[in-house]
Amino acid sequence: MQAPVFPRLLLGLRKAQARLGQHDFAERTFGLVKKLLVSRIESTVGLISDTHGLLRPEALTSLAGADYIIHAGDIGDASILERLSTIAPVTAVRGNNDKGAWASGVSETEVLRVGAAIIYVIHDVKALDLDPAAAGFHAVIAGHSHRPSIELREGVQFVNPGSAGPRRFKLPVSIGWLTVSGTSIKPRLVELTVGSNA
Fold first, then answer.
1. Cβ(121)–Cβ(112) under 8 Å?
2. What is the pLDDT of residues 128-153, one digit of tens each?
3. In this structure, how many other beta carbons lie within 10 angstroms of the beta carbon of residue 80?
4. How far apart are CA 92 and CA 69, in angstroms?
5. CA nearest to 72, candidates 110, 101, 43, 34
6. Exposed (0-12), middle (13-18) or buried (19+): which is 93, by Cβ within 10 Å?
7. Residues 5-30: pLDDT tens digits?
8. Among 163, 182, 138, residue whose Cα is nearest residue 37
9. Cβ atoms of 145 and 16 closer than 8 Å
């Protein structure tokens, strides 16, 4: 008769511990458990861009509950980032309209790791000077055009959340979301309901 699974597993762990020594065994076990947990945890990333100094209450409400927030540039004012950081940790990049002393401390590109997923952030996707798939990125987040879009290219999600700031032409006022589980990234766009002239 075969022994129950749990005692066999325990016996196998004890043998591994004896072979590796206490320290190595603990490190390897912790590493495996961490890898397993990271691949199973689901995180949400709120995406916002092109606020141009206007952080709408509708955007704040829509981003509530995010685990992380990415601002893809043309922020307009340092206070925007401060207010967003009251919701979740913020990763932001400088846009072509971000000027002044406050903006000099904001990088032109950033990398955010969420669990096992690696996300590249840049304001203008046309300025991208690397191959995201070859570099191991799972998503590229950009703004600049004010046009919300989602496109899968060579296994990499390219997402532009559109503009959450002043309305431009007849384009929607919007934000985006990423749901991240392991290296799987599911993007979606959310059009904000604001006044027609806002």
1. yes
2. 999 999 999 999 999 999 999 999 99
3. 22
4. 8
5. 110
6. buried
7. 455 655 665 666 666 665 565 666 66
8. 182
9. no
Angle among Cα 75, 50, 108 to the nearest 5 degrees reads 60
Burial 126-149 (b: 16+ CB within 10 A, else e): eeeeeebeeeebbbbbbbbbbebe
What is the SS3 assignment for 9? helix
Sign of the torsion formed by the C-alpha atoms of 10, 16, 18 and 22: negative
| Cβ pair 90, 107 in contact under 8 A | no
Residue 49 contacts residue 160 (beta carbons within 8 Å): yes
Going by C-alpha positions, the residue among 53, 100, 106, 48 that lies closest to residue 72 is 48
Residue 32 neighbours by CB under 8 Å, 6+ apart: none
Residue type, 152: L
Cα 71–chain centre separation = 10
Q: What's 172's DSSP letter?
A: P
